[in-house]
Each structure stands twice: as structure tokens, then as C-alpha cells.
Amino acid sequence: MPALRRNLLVTAGLLALLAASFVASVSVGATSLPFRDVVAILLGGEGPGGAMERIVLELRAPRALLAVLVGAGLAVVGMLLQSATRNDLADPFLFGLSSGAAAGAVFVINVSGDVLGVWTLPVAAFVGGLMSAITVLALLARTGFAGTSRLILAGLAVSFLFAALTNFLVFSGDQRAAHSVVFWSLGGLGLARWDNLAIAGAGVVVVLGGALALRRSLDALLAGDDTADSLGISPGRTRFLIFVASAFATASFVSLSGVIGFVGMMVPHIGRALVGPLHGPLTLACAGIGAVLLLGGDIAARTILAPQELPLGIVIGALGACFVIALVLLRY
User: Fold this and answer.
1) Global pTM?
2) Of 1, 72, 116, 196, which alpha carbon lies 20 to 30 A from 123's?
3) CA 230 – CA 59 distance, rounded (Å)
4) Residues 246-280 pLDDT 10s
5) Are 125 and 255 in contact (CB under 8 A)?
6) Distance CA 5, CA 13 (A)
7) Alpha helix positions (H), the chain
8) Count of C-beta atoms within a 10 Å radius of residue 191
9) Cα dist. 216→223, 228, 237, 250 in Å?
10) How much is the mean pLDDT over the chain?
11) Is-contact 203 253, C-beta < 8 A?
């Protein structure tokens, strides 16, 4: 099958699956809603109104949209980091991009309190994520951004450093807040509201726009740094831009969803199997797959122990562990 036709079929299939998953996510919950009524409300037609319309528009639609944004964004970040480091197991959280956000959130929960109202937790997590990213970039600047192994080592060091800070804050703070800390650190979409979705939206715009703008440079990196240099592309500059965009985007996502691992590691493998390694179609495929994955994971998190809600990170983590086991058995 020609590549263009295959990519168009994959895109069409992902769009259809995304639409169905979005409606299913809005329909499923403590109170199940009829698909037909949900579709009517979402399309602005004549729905049943009343409480059902408020549930759809004020609670579940923002949550489903946050799942789309975070899933798509984390998947594209994972694709960028895997391409930049030539490491198939690279993940947004391998480089310390989530540990700082977790530290910021725990500081708010256990120490400072809601000084900014409902915006306190997202803002603190975002600032913490950027602090960890700046620390990694400062370490890399001392080495001239030379080598992917130094990038990985710097990210791991910063990740462990901020994880230690997070654990210190947990044990030194109010133990009554421990449940909130654990639930947030395992990920969830409960903070979704129409007025804060712009935070995740900004992250998606930055990372998706950056991936598409750098797609030819990323394709050149597939052939190695020497080949990229011969084509007039600077591998060091490309990796720097990728890491800056990835750091900003990941901080944006973690500030609202908490720590949800494995999305950025799993999805690029699936995307390459569907559309190949070139980064134009791969970026769009990863965004679609990531969005569908997180919507499906959120549905499972709300239904496995209904009416109790599981942290989303537990569901995705279990799926990710199975994926890594399969990857090791089949490829390594």
C-alpha cells in the first residue's frame, strides 16, 4: 500500500476512534448517560437539558478534553525525546520533567496552602516542572549539549533530586494531606475545568508545532549526527529546541493531570508501526493514539472499582508495564 494512502487511512481511523472514545468518556461515569443524548448536547442540538446537560458540559466534557490534550501532548513529547536521544525507551518522565512538578504540587499541599485559590496547585506544579527543566538545561550547558548520554544522565540525576525533595516534603508536612499527595502523584483528571484547559492547550500547541516545524531536522537525525551535519542541520541545536519545548509542555500537562507515565514511551512505538519513522505523519499519529489511549484509560479508571475512582496513573502504569514486557520479549 502506498505510504500516502496508508497514512490517510490511519488518520481517518484515528479520528473516528477519537470521536467515539470522546463520546464514550463523557457518557460513562457514576451516572451513565445515553450516547444519543450526549451527542446531541455536545453538538449543541436539543438535548434533554437540566442536570444531564450540566453533567456533560460542566464536568465530563472538560475532563475528556483534558485527556485528549494531555494524551496527545505526552505522546508527541515522547516521540521527540526518543528521536533526539535515539533511545527507544525515552519518556517525558525519564528526564526529570515531572519530578519538579510533583515537588511543586506537594509543597502547596503540605506547606503553603491555597494562596492562589483553585489556581494554586496548577501554578505550583508548573513552576516546579520548569525549575527541574532549567536545572537539566544548566547542567547540559556546562557540557555544550554534547551527547545524548549526558542528557539522560542529567535528567536522571535531576529526577532523583526532586523526588527526594518531594518525599521529604511528604514526611515533614501534614500527614492528613498524604492521601491528596498520593492521588495527585499517581495522576488523574479531576482538576479539569474550562478555565484551566488553556494551560494544557498551550503545551500541546508548543510541542505539536515544534515537532512539525522540526520534522525535517528530526528525519535527518535518523541517519546519524554526521549525516545531519552534512545536510546543514545542527544536532545540538535541534536537541536543545526539542528539550525546551518538551520541558514546557510536560510541565503544563503535569500541572493539571499529575504524574502519568508510559504514554510517551508506548505511543511512538505504535505510531511507527502504523505510519513509519518519518516525523510528519508520525507526529499526527502519535497525537491521535495518545489522546485515544488516555480517554480509554480514564474510562477504565472510573469503571473498574465504580463508584470509586482509581488514579489514572495506575491504569496506564499497568498497561505500560505489560507493553515493556512484550517489547523486551519481542525485540531485545
Assistant:
1) 0.89
2) 72
3) 53
4) 888 888 888 888 888 899 999 999 999 999 999 99
5) yes
6) 12
7) 3-27, 35-42, 50-54, 61-85, 99-107, 120-141, 148-172, 178-185, 197-213, 215-221, 225-230, 235-257, 263-275, 279-303, 312-331
8) 19
9) 12, 10, 14, 23
10) 84
11) yes
DSSP 71-100: HHHHHHHHHHHHHHHT-TT--GGGGTTTHH
Give the whole-angstrom CA distance, residue 125 versus residue 185: 11
Q: Model confidence over 300-311: pLDDT tens digits? A: 999 988 788 888
Can you give the residue ranges of every domain in the chain? 61-331
In the block, residue with C-alpha cell 488518520: 11
66-81 burial, b at 16+ Cβ within 10 Å, e below that, comes to bbbbbbbbbbbbbbbb
Chain-centroid distance, C-alpha 226: 31
**All 3 cell numbers of residue 97?**
520533567
Q: Is 307 exposed, middle or buried (0-12, 13-18, 19+ CB in 10 A)?
A: exposed
Residues 270 and 266: their CA atoms lie apart, in Å, by 7
- What does CATH list as the number for 61-331? 1.10.3470.10
Which candidate, 138, 314, 319, places its Cα nearest to that of 240? 138
Residue type, 324: V
Task: Output the nine-digit C-alpha cell for 260.
Answer: 502519568
- Enumerate long-range contacts of 142-148, CB under 8 Å, 24 or more apart: 144/236, 145/236, 145/239, 145/240, 146/236, 148/84, 148/85, 148/86, 148/87, 148/239
Dihedral angle, C-alpha 125, 133, 103, 153, nearest 10 °: 150
Q: Cα separation of 297 and 311, whole Å?
A: 10
**Can you state the percent helix, strand and coil of the chain, rounding each to 5?**
80, 0, 20
Cell numbers of 57, please?
A: 458540559
3-state secondary structure at position 191: coil
Radius of gyration of the chain (CA): 20
Residue 204, CA distances (Å) to 3, 55, 210, 211 in order: 26, 26, 10, 10
253, 200 contact by CB (below 8 A): yes
Report whether 185 contacts 256 (CB < 8 A): no
